[in-house]
């Protein structure tokens, strides 16, 4: 079995070679450390989330979650992580600047040996206008990265078929659920602001960057 303390430092050079310049966001977390902290993120993760690697290494990736993130989805991920198993979902996340995005997140186990597993996350910022082609290209890149990891280290990735994990019909359903959640929250926020009576107060609240205003403009940008 690999020396626990040494796992990250042994793997990091290889992860840098394979993942640093990949155009898809990659994050690796160590579930054997307290609260499953990130031990590596690549440049595409930084570009998507606007967090720099040094700000997030050592933290659990839940810092991307916020007001509209669905607790049932995070429960599902937590359960998969406990079992060191793979999972995929559509989760509402927030960048460092507070802007919202729909994250098609795939988590996969990277088995180092029988007793030691790391978890790799691939984040895919999903826009409803994106076609299956974009997703298929992303899956192909992830597949290639995993093959390279297997070749250049002792990692044996499970034989997970990302094209199955990310099946277009299930993506549609998962996205729909997340999107409905945002839509309902916007309706709720707007009607509670309206219920306060004065449209002036409503405008003021939105002008202050109240949740409804901020999320609404992010959604409009996403759909635009
Ligand atoms: C490798 C890896 C990457 C993850 N990436 C994300 C992510 O991009 N967005 C997110 O909301 N959660 C992400 N998570 C999930 C959270 O870190 C956490 O496991 C989840 O919120 C469930 O745990 P909790 O209920 O204790 O928060 C990731 C987890 C792992 C292991």
UniProtKB/TrEMBL annotation:
Domain PAS, which positions?
34-120
Gene3D superfamilies, A to Z: PAS domain (3.30.450.20)
Protein name as catalogued: PAS domain-containing protein
Listed Pfam families: PAS_9 (PF13426)
Identify the PANTHER family for this entry.
PROTEIN TWIN LOV 1 (PTHR47429)
Domain of life according to the entry: Bacteria
**Origin organism of this chain?**
Roseobacter sinensis
Q: Which UniProt keywords apply?
A: Chromophore, Flavoprotein, FMN
């Amino acid at each position: 079995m690999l020396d626990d303390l040494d796992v990250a430092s042994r793997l990091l050079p290889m992860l840098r070679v394979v993942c640093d310049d990949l155009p898809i966001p990659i994050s690796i977390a160590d579930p054997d450390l307290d609260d499953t902290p990130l031990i590596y993120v690549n440049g595409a993760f930084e570009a998507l989330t606007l967090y720099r690697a040094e700000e997030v290494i050592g933290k659990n990736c839940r810092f991307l979650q916020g007001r509209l993130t669905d607790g049932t989805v995070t429960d599902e991920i937590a359960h998969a992580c406990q079992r060191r198993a793979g999972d995929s979902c559509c989760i509402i996340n927030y960048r460092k600047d507070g802007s919202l995005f729909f994250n098609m997140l795939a988590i996969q186990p990277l088995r180092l040996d029988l007793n030691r597993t790391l978890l790799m996350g691939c984040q895919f910022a999903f826009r409803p206008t994106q076609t299956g082609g974009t997703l298929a290209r992303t899956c192909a890149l992830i597949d290639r990265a995993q093959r390279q990891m297997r070749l250049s280290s002792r990692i044996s990735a499970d034989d997970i078929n990302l094209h199955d994990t990310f099946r277009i019909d299930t993506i549609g359903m998962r996205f729909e659920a997340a999107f409905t959640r945002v839509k309902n929250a916007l309706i709720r926020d707007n009607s509670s602001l309206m219920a306060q009576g004065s449209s002036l107060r409503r405008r003021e609240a939105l002008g202050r960057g109240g949740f409804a205003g901020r999320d609404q403009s992010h959604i409009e940008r996403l759909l635009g």
